[in-house]
Design goal:
The complex is a heterodimer of chains A (116) and B (109). Chain A is mainly β. Chain A contains no helices and eleven strands. Classes of the chains: A mainly beta (116), B mainly beta (109).
Chain lengths: 116, 109
């Protein structure tokens, strides 16, 4: 299993500003993911954070808006840039852990972001 | 396109049994997961199915039929703490996880 922490747990931000969310894992992992979950909605994958190379973004998400860093195998950051109220959401970090027959995803507690 | 369908909300009584269905249309299939998510918390793993049939784990069971693109999560002896959202997710041919919107389960005394 993996224990994942995120900072901050919640924040209220002004339109036009940026917020950086940190994700720390208690063990080295290859794959780290950033998700967004809007109220009552499913998880939407933003990007896969790759150690030593640029993140891989999903359709509809771009690096200028959501820059990601992955300096080592236990840490990643997601920045939400030039925020608007539409960015209000819960942002979740997750990791893949390889089990006997499948990869299980473990999630951090999430960062609840409100943009005014 | 890829699609996973689950009921939006279900209500059940404490002590009873409830079945939450999930149907999927994906490009390939490499396994199906069920996750539980309490309000304001992160999802946590419940079960994994890759072969047809029933997987039982205590009060929770998960069933898969690959030919029908169908799964269900069965919860027995419901407790108030089972009130949560239940997310169905499928791994496609590229091993990417496709998530359903989740089923909010409300347990009444």
């Amino acid at each position: 299993s993996a224990v994942i922490s995120q900072k901050p747990s919640r924040d209220i931000c002004q339109r036009g500003t940026s917020l950086t969310i940190q994700c720390q894992v208690d063990s080295q992992v290859t794959m780290m993911f950033w998700y967004r979950q809007q109220p009552g909605q499913s998880l939407t994958l933003i990007a896969t954070a790759n150690q030593g190379s640029e993140a891989t973004y999903e359709s509809g998400f771009v690096i200028d808006k959501f820059p990601i860093s992955r300096p080592n195998l236990t840490f990643s950051t997601l920045t939400v840039s030039n925020m608007s109220p539409e960015d209000s959401s819960i942002y979740l970090c997750s990791v893949d852990m390889l089990g006997v027959s499948y990869n299980e995803q473990f999630f951090g507690p999430g960062t609840r972001l409100t943009v005014l | 396109g890829q699609n996973i369908d689950q009921p939006t909300e279900m209500t059940a009584t404490e002590g009873a049994i409830v079945q939450i269905n999930c149907t999927y249309q994906t490009s390939g299939f490499n396994g199906l997961f069920w996750y539980q998510q309490h309000a304001g918390e992160a999802p946590t793993f419940l079960s994994y199915n890759v072969l047809d049939g029933l997987e039982e784990k205590g009060r929770f069971s998960s069933f898969l039929s690959r030919s029908k693109g169908y799964s269900y999560l069965l919860l027995k002896e419901l407790q108030m703490k089972d009130s949560a959202s239940y997310l169905c997710a499928v791994t496609d041919s590229n091993y990417q996880l496709i998530w359903g919107a989740g089923t909010k389960l409300i347990i009444k005394p």
